[in-house]
């Protein structure tokens, strides 16, 4: 997690998907994280969540992962976990959304292997 937006180098980005319509809760006390790096089990970076200047969350895929660009499962997970209202520091807000992205990537990779 980072308190600043993070942009990976353009040559590392395979795909960028706008997550317009998804919002996450802001913590009560600490500064709100602005980015999350998602790694696989081998600690290789596979995705990055970051806000753009307009406050829209962007999902940068750093590996060729065949995600549905509409991401219905991600929206369902974010709603089910209540990412928009969960303010817990380790599981709410951006961490909640990052967990949903990680689960979606894992499920997609498992389906395609």
Quick structural gist:
The protein has helices at residues 72-81, 93-111; strands at 15-18, 35-39, 45-51, 57-61.
Describe this structure in words.
- It is built from 2 helices and 4 strands, in the order ββββαα.
- It is of the alpha+beta class and 113 residues long.
- The chain has a 4-stranded antiparallel beta sheet, with helices on one face.
- A hairpin with a 5-residue loop joins strand 3 and strand 4.
- The protein is globular and about 40 Å long.
SS-derived structural category: alpha+beta
Described by strand count, sense and barrel closure, the largest sheet is: 4 strands, antiparallel
Shape: globular
Average pLDDT: 89
Give the beta-strand count: 4
Number of helical regions: 2
Task: Return residue spans where pLDDT drops below 50 for at least 5 consecutive residues.
Answer: none
Note the topology.
Elements: E1 15-18, E2 35-39, E3 45-51, E4 57-61, H1 72-81, H2 93-111
Antiparallel strand pairs: 1-4, 2-3, 3-4
Helix pairs in contact: 1-2
Structural features:
4 strands, 26% helix, 113 residues
């Amino acid at each position: 997690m980072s308190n600043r937006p993070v942009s990976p180098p353009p040559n590392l980005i395979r795909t960028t998907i706008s997550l317009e319509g998804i919002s996450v809760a802001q913590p009560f006390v600490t500064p709100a994280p602005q980015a999350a790096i998602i790694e696989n089990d081998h600690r290789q970076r596979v995705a990055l969540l970051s806000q753009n200047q307009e406050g829209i969350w962007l999902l940068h895929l750093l590996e060729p992962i065949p995600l549905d660009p509409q991401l219905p499962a991600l929206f369902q997970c974010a709603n089910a976990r209540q990412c928009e209202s969960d303010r817990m520091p380790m599981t709410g807000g951006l961490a909640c959304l990052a967990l949903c992205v990680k689960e979606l990537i894992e499920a997609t990779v498992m389906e395609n292997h």
